[in-house]
Amino acid sequence: MPVYKAPVEDVMFLLNDVFPIERHNNLPGFADATPDVVEAILAEGAKLCEEVFTPLNLSGDQEGCTRNADGSVTTPKGFKDAYEAYASGGWMGLSVPEEFGGQGLPSVLNTIMQEFLSSSNLALAMYPGLTQGAIAALLVHGTEEQKRTYLPKMVEGAWTGTMNLTEPHCGTDLGLLKTKAVPNGDGSYAISGTKIFISAGEHDMAENIVHLVLARIEGAPQGTKGISLFVVPKFIVNDDGSLGDQNGVSCGSIEHKMGIHGNATCVMNYDGAKGWLVGQENRGLNAMFVMMNEARLAVGVQGLAQSEVAYQNAVAYAKDRLQGRSLTGPKFPDKVADPIIVHPDVRRTLLSIKSFNEAARALVVWTGLNSDIAHRSSDDAQRQTAEDYMGLMTPVVKGVLTDLGFDNAVKAQQMFGGHGYIEEWGMSQFVRDARIAMIYEGANGIQAMDLVGRKLGKDGGRAIMTFFNEVGAFCQENADDENLKGFVAPLQQGLGHLQQATMWFMQNAMAKPDNAGAGATDYMHLFGTVALGYMWAKIAKAAHAKKSQGNGVAEKMDAKLLTGRFFMERMMPETSVRLARISSGADVTMAMPMEAF
Ligand SMILES: Cc1cc2nc3c(=O)[nH]c(=O)nc-3n(C[C@H](O)[C@H](O)[C@H](O)COP(=O)(O)OP(=O)(O)OC[C@H]3O[C@@H](n4cnc5c(N)ncnc54)[C@H](O)[C@@H]3O)c2cc1C
């Protein structure tokens, strides 16, 4: 049975030492989040994940979801109870405003919990995860009545949420969307069409399911400019808040798929279902973007989460599995062989995962704090910078953390040799579960295009220039710090490559967009490597400062610093390869005749 221990201590180091949360006490909700309170909350969350969610991960994968003859869906044994434990613990509303039943705490805490939950049971964690995205969209774009009708029940966990974008002929290109909305004349609309791949579209864990659905109002323009967003409850909500008739929405089938078996992926049929407009007519994508941006960050976190849990199991196995002898002579002469963790290649593999995980977690926390600043700060300049970073980092977190999350799950599986390929060890599940994160919420190629095509040039390149300035200033300020010697120089070099790649796009992609398209994925990863390197430099600075605290902290910080040095030596050099690929342009890629593929 796979194991999992939530990395609470690492998170507390990030929140106390690397990005001190106390500095943000002026933001609403932060004053209540003292270090003690945060630690107590995360410890409680860790317990839920380790003791309730984790034990259901393997069994949920094996059992999967079942669609019954009446169209209802039964989730794997134990999921309903585990969801109830989550809901009754108040986790859904951790960072939702108090007026809707939430606790109003910093959303970064929720993001951290998403890592723990997704590591322990990704399929199960997706049910509340989607609900939180729907809550966010209704909070921003819902009418007062919609908020009053849906939010308290969703925050309580009694009702869950979904997002309905995809149709059989339209995934990435939402402009092709056909689902239609016809005004009923009473303020509601009749929604008709078929949505596919809808996560948590139908299940047995909640009294009601609140679908957020993209559809085209009759007569609206074609393309993305004619799409509107609707709230379509499974059961119509009566004026007194009780549940009325079943709406015209049903689950036609569920998908049999590679991973996340415990999460119901549904074909949803809308047959004149009653829906109500959310936000403005024809501005549905804009409204859905709130949910999509939330979801993209959450999906990036899923990549990290699978990498972390796979790593923990690989380490346990590598310390236990006896094969061969160390290259420098037996390390455990009393045993028949040494544990495989003595072998340099095994250590290389484990350290490449570990050094990613710890920096990726820092990037998630940093981005999460920026999200809080963007949503809660009253200082215009501070808010603008945070919003800029959010825009820039969302595709990077989504694309890079999920690509590497999957790679790392495979690497961790490799540590088990043939046993990793056998289902009972659980490593195969981590690989299968991690794979979807690269695809949904905008496939990673699309994230890369979003970064290069939209985010780089936005507002005259303000966001990317702010990032360059921040990292450049850090390098300059710490250039002479002996403690950071192995960190600043490689970071500076990586930053230089990122700046060159950005300049190359400016000079070569404006007139020839294929150059941007062909280099986008490499650029996203180049950016990600620099961002992770920056995280390591900041972690290293904090770790050196903390070393003097005594009480065994020094050993832990030394291990951190070694992990960081591994990243700087082994991962940062990738920036030069990425730059070379980007600046080779698109000519060869595009020269290939279609029939020659
Ligand atoms: C398990 C699962 C759960 C899901 N959950 C949900 C959900 O809850 N709600 C929902 O609405 N959807 C959901 N989806 C759908 C998912 O978001 C889509 O599958 C995804 O957006 C890609 O769309 P597509 O499958 O139609 O691929 P396509 O759009 O056909 O893309 C195919 C490939 O072409 C590439 N491509 C397409 N256009 C371009 C371009 N312009 N430039 C470069 N490359 C391009 C893509 O990157 C991709 O690799 C889910 C899917 C799965 C499998």
UniProtKB/TrEMBL annotation:
Q: Outline the extent of the Acyl-CoA oxidase/dehydrogenase middle domain.
A: 163-271
Q: What residue stretches are annotated with the Acyl-CoA dehydrogenase/oxidase C-terminal domain?
A: 282-451
Q: Which catalytic reaction applies to this protein?
A: 3-(methylsulfanyl)propanoyl-CoA + oxidized [electron-transfer flavoprotein] + H(+) = 3-(methylsulfanyl)acryloyl-CoA + reduced [electron-transfer flavoprotein]
- Write out the entry's keywords from A to Z: FAD, Flavoprotein, Oxidoreductase
Q: What's the superkingdom here?
A: Bacteria
Looking up Pfam families in the UniProt record yields: Acyl-CoA_dh_1 (PF00441), Acyl-CoA_dh_C (PF12806), Acyl-CoA_dh_M (PF02770), Acyl-CoA_dh_N (PF02771)
Q: Where is the Acetyl-CoA dehydrogenase-like C-terminal domain?
A: 467-593
Q: Name one GO molecular function term.
A: oxidoreductase activity, acting on the CH-CH group of donors
Query: What Enzyme Commission number does this protein have?
Result: 1.3.99.41
Give the enzyme's main class according to its UniProt record, as a single word: oxidoreductase
Q: What is its cofactor?
A: FAD
The Acyl-CoA dehydrogenase/oxidase N-terminal domain extends over 80-157
Q: What exactly does this protein do?
A: Involved in the assimilation of dimethylsulphoniopropionate (DMSP), an important compound in the fixation of carbon in marine phytoplankton, by mediating the conversion of 3-(methylthio)propanoyl-CoA (MMPA-CoA) to 3-(methylthio)acryloyl-CoA (MTA-CoA).
Could you say which protein family the record assigns here? Belongs to the acyl-CoA dehydrogenase family.
| Protein's name in the database | 3-methylmercaptopropionyl-CoA dehydrogenase
Q: Which organism is it from?
A: Microvirga guangxiensis
